[in-house]
Amino acid sequence: MYKEKGIIAFIDEPEKIKETFSKRTFGIEVEGNQYQQPMHFDCVNSRIEQLKDVKVGDYVSVTFTIHCNSAIGGENKKLRYTSLRAGIIEKLPFAKIEDAMAPFKQEELETGKTQA
Length: 116
Hints:
Elements: E1 2-11, E2 15-18, E3 21-29, E4 39-44, E5 59-72, E6 78-91, H1 97-111
Antiparallel strand pairs: 1-3, 1-5, 2-3, 3-4, 5-6
């Protein structure tokens, strides 16, 4: 399993692929991502429920696995897919450590005192 932290950029509507398989895709903005594109994750079947507790703009930690699949398409063409399958989505309290420290920094500006 892998783990990544970031801010939720989007949450798509659920898709029912077939009777026993549904998915919902969401993306997170990851600090330091040189391409500035969100990482996309799929929540599958029962994992979709986790997305009801988060919204765009929330800071989250996502554990995930890399899922690979092959299929035969039209004209017997081999198709290969790779996706990031979300495991546990945990809402975190602050987007950055700087956000957590902001009230203390503001008090320093107003009073000139630092926290010990």
